[in-house]
Amino acid sequence: MEQEWFELREARRRTLTTSSWVPLRASITTESGEYAYLGWNKTYFGLGSVACAVEDREHAQELGWMDAGISHSHGPDASGDEYHSVELFRESNDFVGLNLVLEQPGFGSKDKEWHLNQDLVIALGLFREGDVWVRPSEGYVEVAKLTRNLGRPCELKIRTEYLKDYLAARRMGLFTSIYTDRDEILADVSHIKWEGGKASVKEDGIEWEGIVMPIHAGNGHRFGSETAVFHIANNSEARHDDVPAFSFPAGDNAKSRQWRVKAEGDKLFRVIGKLWKSEWIAPADRSPRVRRDPMPATVYFLTDASGKRESRDTLAAQGRWLWFKPDVVNALLRFRDSRLLWYTQDTGEVGANADSTVHFGINALGLVNVYAKDMGLLDDWQQQVWAAYTVAPEGGVSAELWASQMDASPVETQAPEKFLPEVLEFVNLAFERHYGTALFRPHQEYSDIVGRCHRFRGLDQEGLLALAKDLARLTADSIDAQSLQKIVSPPKGEKWGSLKSLEKVVATLLPEERAREVTGPLFGTYDLRLADAHLAGKDLSQAYESARIDRERLHIFQSWQLLDSFVRSLATIGRAVEKARNASEASGAAPTES
User: Fold this and answer.
1) Are residues 63 and 124 in the same domain?
2) Nearest residue to 505 (alpha-carbon basis) of 492, 517, 487
3) Over the stretch 145-202, which tens digit does the pLDDT of each residue have?
4) Which residue from 94, 215, 221, 376 has the least number of CB within 10 angstroms?
5) Looking at residues 103-112, what average pLDDT do you find?
6) CB 436: neighbour CB atoms within 10 A?
7) Whole-Å CA distances, 515 to 479, 506, 519, 541, 542
């Protein structure tokens, strides 16, 4: 390596307080090659930290690596009548700090373990998932994470923004003590220009030392060195006793010898650079998460056709709405715990998590409307998601949203998405009660597929076909065709697919033409699914017509039509089966055998 590598200049310049992540505790070693042989090199990075009151900063900065480093595990201080909890760092009675990471010593088969201070965990609303701590109220953002080497903890770090928020709430800062070194064995050190093979730097908070040491290859001893060896043994005759008792070797009971060993091996050079560094990480000016301090607005939305943008500070000033591209709903639904519920055909609630949803409506142009005050009440991180899709007002406010929020008279329309899981269960149960067998086979991905079936999925041609594919997985791909063919058998030499088998069963309950009309949307959906799975090799006009889709409308409305005709088809089939069952029971006939 070049001389600069050993001088650790970039490590001297780097500051933790400007980094995205701050290690709270670290002990990381990387090594390659075999020690005492040419090419061996090793690096080490260690960091210990202590949080303390801001007014104790000067006292904290007097600590060294041996005080605040990682040379010890944590445990309670119990002496006499006093007990000090494991989280406390006590350098003296005059200085008390806080350990944000606690090292639990190992025992027996149990390795040591590192724990994130529980006060920090609960104050920031974190939950541990494996070796990562997430904050669900901010979309499960990763806030802290533990890295391991061969199963043992080697680094626990936290996002700087969240650490400073916590420190601000407690009026604390974080003192960090770092030791790092770089070590390599070379054959030639002519490029190392340290006078006399040594160099050092000492400045505020930083101490660096470099050394070039000639060694013998194979054993690592200093070149030309000798080792004195002393051997002492007990010469007591007590060894012959039945119950021997020995004293320390001395006088006649001792025998000894000594010799010298001269190191051998080719001459190599071990070059080491060592750095000790301390840094103070100050708290943030505000604590919006822990202390709920108000923060200046950072997110802006378009509020008129001229391009004017406003923040939460003014959004609640008067009754008005905001307009967004419908894609925003898909962006919100990518978060864990996200929610999409429907109130009417074109209104509902949506949010990146279930605790902070907003009432929305879809206007005539397929844009999403939200009441401006509702948007202003969201946390900044959710506002940032919405703001990426803000557009100038166009197409007016959603008629159904206006009816609910202004006229206080919600319409009685219904969204097909709301009834999709209900109608699937309804038709399945109707078949089971009447024919003794369910219509659909169980599907292990059922809940996930149903959750993806909404009109915002199909905002373009590709999305519409993907929606059709999932709807087909719930019906054509899941229908138990063999059971249906026990109810109505295909003529000899004729093969029916799952949907044709369903159509033939429905034709026993409804006129044949009506059965074909009712099942048409299911066939159309399946044909669109094939266009998604393969390149369309034929005109899809018939598929769109069967699915009751008007191709002249925007894709968001085409997707609504696909869902609406699909749900209506299943509902009609379910009612027909239920009607047949009721008629059978009224006549006293036995249930149809499967």
Assistant:
1) yes
2) 487
3) 999 999 999 999 999 999 999 999 999 999 999 999 999 999 999 999 999 999 999 9
4) 94
5) 90
6) 14
7) 17, 6, 6, 21, 18
User: From the CB of residue 533, how many other CB atoms can be counted at a distance below 10 Å?
Assistant: 12
> Would you state the pLDDT for residue 535?
47
Classify 485 as helix, strand or coil.
helix
Q: Does 274 share its domain with 175?
A: yes
- Residue 295 is assigned to a structural domain of this protein: no
Residue 98's alpha-carbon distances to 26, 49, 53, 102, in angstroms, are 17, 9, 9, 10
Predicted local distance difference test score (pLDDT) of residue 284: 97
**Distance between CA 113 and CA 129 in Å, rounded?**
16
Residue 441 amino acid letter:
R
End-of-domain residue from the set 405, 425, 457: 405
Whether residue 234 is found in the same domain as residue 214 = no
Residue 245 shares a structural domain with residue 115: no
What total number of domains does the chain contain? 4
- Same domain membership, residue 448 and residue 387: no
Q: Is the domain of 540 the same as that of 583? A: yes
Residue 403 structure tokens = 């009816």
350 forms beta bridges with 340, 358
> Which of 13, 544, 43, 576 lies closest to 273 in space, CA to CA?
43
Q: Give residue 169's identity as a one-letter amino acid code.
A: A
Residues 427 and 539 in one domain: yes
In this structure, are residues 114 and 49 in contact, taking their beta carbons and an 8 Å threshold? Answer: no
The single-letter code of the amino acid at 30 is: T
For residue 357, the enclosing domain spans: 301-405
